[in-house]
Amino acid sequence: MSPGTNDNATPDADRAAPEASTVGAAPAGNSASRSRLRSARLGFCAAALAVAMTAGAVVVGALRDGGATPAVAAAAAAGVSPQLLASGDLDASITSLQAHLRSQPADFGGWATLGLAYVEQARTKGDPSRYPQAQEALDRSLKLRPHYDPALAGRAALAAARHDFTGALKYADLALGQNPYSERALCSRIDALVELGRYAEASKAADLADSRRPGVPVFTRYAYVHELRGDVSAARRVLKQALATATSRGDIAYVASALGQLAWNQGDYDSALSFYARALAADDSYLPALEGRARAQAARGDRAAAITGMEQVVQRYPLPQPLVELGELYAARGRAGDARKARDQYALVNAWVSLARANGVDADLDTALAAADHGDHRAALKAARDEWARRHTVHTADALAWALHVSGRDKEALPHAREATATGYRNASFLYHRGVIERATGHTKAARASLKAALKLNPGFSPLGARAARAALKAAR
To answer: Which of 31, 116, 328, 376 has its CA 20 to 30 A from that of 72?
Structure first.
């Protein structure tokens, strides 16, 4: 439910051994011919990733053509309403915006809406190459009208999407200085404070947003703040209220998927699948619902359906979390060739990380989570330390704890593992990591309690991690 996080890192029972020097890199000792074959295959996979990142993308001529046309003296009075983006077809809306801006290049409102549309397109398609285009459009809007609050709110959303949460907070505050009732700015401010680990302030920001602009975007964030503090019942209640008031297909898919994720986190797989079905009935291509459904199917033991579903997800949207999860599903199945398939998925994480960084996205958390279990523990530790230096959250604490653990530095890891679970946030992966680290530092009784809690909360929290947790619990007796 939280943007830019992966709660499902899944290691071996005690200390995961690095497979190679980078995430998913080919192991040493292969023959030259096998290496060439695998390099060719991974080259094809990387090319497929690049195609997937741009498949279905619209032409970006509005930015280029508009730049060649001198701005008229006054902007179009009405501009383009952001409600155009709620029409159900984002690509068509963007195409319409581009056509409008070719003829009305001084429409500052249209440029702001286009920038937000690119941010949304990047989010829904998993395509970070849209972010530079979003920045250019938002900059055009602010050049035409400085201090325009929708464009400032768009810059906040863009910064958050790039994991620049300090920047997101800055632009959200600037937007709210112009318009205290800006829904996007209020929501971006909550997101930024959450992702900076400033949970008490995030709770106050959620209360303020709820008082000013109650609605689906605020309700979902309000619910997540409650979940982070361990109040699952309140989070569920707020999300159900949001779902009852949702009218657009996008809102229904978003809220139902959030409810599905909440149910899955608590090990209620039947409810999770029911909510994901509702989300997909509203939007059958909605990535979080497709991914969540596959995860819940895996947790219920339907590995075949889970693999099929996750393959469909990564074919269209090859993001780090589903790539890792698909790799682990292959590894758990263990058929001939599955180990190679798993390594190929882990290798593609590197390709995504490179693409993300090239487009201004901080991908250290993704790197730390993937590399700790399926790559170079040194790379994992560096990325985790870098992310921890920027922000202290439950997710970065867990990532740093686990990276320290796989690097053999359990005494340093233990305080971070405890910090990851200190807010009351109920996450089986965090509890599993804490239990393994407690066992490694001689806290056997605490380790048993943490491992039991992880498996009681969500017994199928990952294809490999749940199995490893059971093995670790047995060893800690």
So the answer is: 116
